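Quick review question:
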């Protein structure tokens, strides 16, 4: 490394250690209060990039786009320009534009060569996960530039500048990065031929599996890619030199994604749509419709919880004394009581219904019929709530709306969520992914980024196990231009017209359960909202396997650990398993303070180690 670069990396370390909020200095914390705009990313440098746009007078979309491009550099294990994502936007009206409530879908698409048996016929059973055949057409650059052009206020060069600087400087490996390297290195240990095959990733991102916390990771090649995008926009990535480099990388690993697939993306690759909108206890929730399963599943979980709660009369609730206004507030209950256990059981049963329907029914609505109206209707949620037996859990066949074919849910990990609220009440929830950690492991060496393995989010082999020993419904088989089913759940909660919560998470299907719990804690709890939503211990049930995951005690940053709930859950027939982190939430809560006006509490999940930034 040159002396110049060493000095820059040292400077970056100092910045990371000191924190650099666009306001008075404060010790970096997982949560903080801001008055004039806040950004919560799962990496501090990305939060700072977003806050820098707010400081320049940019809006929430400018901040989100800058933060996202920066995450491409500093969270290469999770997301990046080789992946795709979803963005939910709520902007107040201006003199020239009515209020905006919209959802931008820039999920990756299957290339033209990918029919239903594309991966099923592949000799390599791991082809859906590692290497060029796992790569779907990246959508991130198209989506971010689309959002910036339609809804941002700053120019491309300005919003890309922090990401370019981060790529030139490099970043410091943190615990999440080191854990991700360890996980990816297992694949290299199992298949030593990967060292040659995915040479760039092995050498430059994984440092041959030997990365330690504090090591600098410097991939300046990505600065060149980002500079070309800043200068030439979409053409640089989809038809120009980066497109050529992507198709070379794919061809070198015997893949089929071509430059024609990329050239078709800018128009077809971005779909703008109305957000899925529903009510929960007086709030309006804006979230992502299919091909995300997140919005439908969130709606089902919250709908069932609300219907279950309202079955108890007010008199019964008062008699129980612990029954606060909220349905799911166990944070304020001293210890872990019978009432807490009952609420937890109801939540888990709601998750089982939602995940059963996710697995059976959800897929890309541009290709198959998805019964969204049925799955999100209050009548259906009341019916599912009636099926819940508060004394015991039920056999798997009792959940959701049945369908003939077998279907199960899958999990994955390489994803990142960011939340932004600006000074005018503009809000963005944005979740992006390259699917598993370090995606397909295949990098584009000239430009220093990793290509996704989103093809594994399709059902790739009918009736066979996928990456996580699970299968899904035929609706989610690949087809050219089709988008694989996602769990990403970027969500904005409005109170009236004002954003009250912006939330989302990473963590595969655990995203859905994490976001549901985050929303419940924020809206039903009586402790500060965003930190409660992020820091409380979590559970997860994805219907199949029929196991409740309960986070181990170290993950209760607010309120009780849920470890002591295991006996109560087992008494109700649940099989429980102690788990590591269940999703990683980045969340902002906003409220009107009588003295100080609008305040925002931004919280980043300690499970992944991000820090918020903003304007105080
Ligand atoms: N690949 C993560 C998701 O879209 O659910």
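Suggested answer, residue by residue:
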């Amino acid at each position: 490394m040159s002396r110049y670069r060493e000095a820059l990396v040292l400077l970056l370390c100092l910045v990371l250690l000191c924190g650099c909020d666009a306001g008075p200095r404060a010790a970096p914390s997982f949560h903080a209060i801001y008055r004039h705009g806040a950004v919560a990313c799962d990496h501090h440098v990305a939060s700072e990039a977003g806050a820098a746009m707010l400081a320049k007078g940019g809006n929430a979309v400018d901040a989100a786009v800058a933060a996202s491009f920066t995450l491409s550099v500093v969270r290469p294990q999770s997301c990046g320009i080789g992946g795709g994502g979803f963005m939910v936007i709520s902007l107040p009206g201006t003199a020239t534009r009515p209020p905006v409530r919209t959802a931008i879908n820039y999920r990756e698409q299957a290339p033209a060569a990918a029919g239903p048996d594309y991966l099923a016929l592949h000799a390599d059973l791991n082809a859906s996960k590692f290497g060029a055949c796992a790569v779907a057409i990246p959508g991130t650059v198209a989506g971010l530039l689309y959002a910036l052009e339609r809804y941002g206020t700053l120019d491309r060069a300005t919003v890309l500048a922090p990401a370019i600087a981060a790529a030139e400087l490099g970043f410091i490996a943190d615990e999440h990065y080191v854990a991700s390297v360890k996980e990816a290195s297992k694949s290299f240990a199992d298949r030593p031929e990967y060292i040659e095959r995915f040479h760039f990733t092995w050498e430059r991102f994984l440092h041959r599996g030997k990365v330690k916390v504090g090591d600098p990771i410097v991939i300046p090649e990505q600065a060149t890619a980002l500079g070309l995008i800043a200068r030439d926009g979409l053409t640089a990535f989809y038809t120009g030199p980066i497109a050529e480099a992507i198709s070379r990388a794919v061809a070198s690993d015997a893949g089929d994604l071509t430059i024609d697939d990329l050239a078709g993306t800018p128009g077809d690759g971005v779909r703008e749509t109305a957000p899925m909108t529903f009510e929960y206890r007086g709030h309006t929730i804006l979230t992502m419709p299919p091909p995300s399963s997140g919005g439908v599943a969130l709606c089902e979980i919250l709908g069932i919880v609300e219907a279950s709660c309202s079955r108890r009369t007010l008199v019964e609730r008062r008699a129980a004394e612990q029954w606060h206004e909220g349905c799911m507030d166990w944070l304020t209950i001293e210890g872990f009581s019978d009432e807490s256990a009952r609420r937890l059981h109801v939540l888990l049963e709601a998750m089982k219904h939602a995940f059963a329907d996710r697995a059976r029914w959800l897929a890309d609505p541009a290709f198959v019929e998805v019964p969204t109206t049925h799955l999100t209707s209050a009548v259906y949620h009341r019916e599912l709530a009636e099926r819940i037996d508060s004394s015991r859990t039920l056999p798997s066949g009792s959940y959701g709306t049945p369908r003939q074919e077998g279907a199960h849910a899958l999990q994955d990990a390489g994803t990142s969520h960011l939340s932004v609220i600006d000074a005018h009440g503009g809000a963005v929830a944005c979740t992006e992914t390259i699917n598993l950690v370090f995606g397909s492991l295949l990098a584009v060496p000239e430009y220093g980024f990793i290509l996704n393995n989103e093809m594994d989010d399709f059902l790739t082999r009918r009736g066979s196990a996928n990456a996580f020993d699970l299968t899904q419904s035929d609706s989610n088989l690949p087809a050219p231009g089709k988008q694989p089913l996602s769990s990403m759940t970027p969500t904005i909660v409005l109170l009236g017209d004002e954003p009250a919560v912006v939330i989302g998470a990473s963590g595969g299907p655990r995203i859905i359960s994490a976001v549901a719990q985050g929303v419940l804690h924020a809206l039903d709890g009586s402790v500060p909202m965003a930190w409660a939503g992020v820091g409380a211990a979590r559970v997860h049930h994805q219907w199949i396997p029929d196991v409740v995951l309960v986070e181990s005690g170290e993950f209760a940053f607010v309120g009780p650990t849920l470890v002591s709930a295991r006996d109560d859950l087992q008494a109700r027939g649940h099989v429980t398993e102690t788990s590591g982190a269940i999703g990683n939430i980045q969340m902002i809560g906003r409220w009107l303070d009588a003295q100080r006006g609008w305040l925002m509490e931004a919280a980043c999940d300690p499970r992944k180690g991000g820090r918020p930034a903003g304007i105080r």
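Why it works: The first strand starts at residue 31 and ends at 34. Residues 1-27, 311-315, 321-325, 405-412 have pLDDT under 50 and may be disordered.
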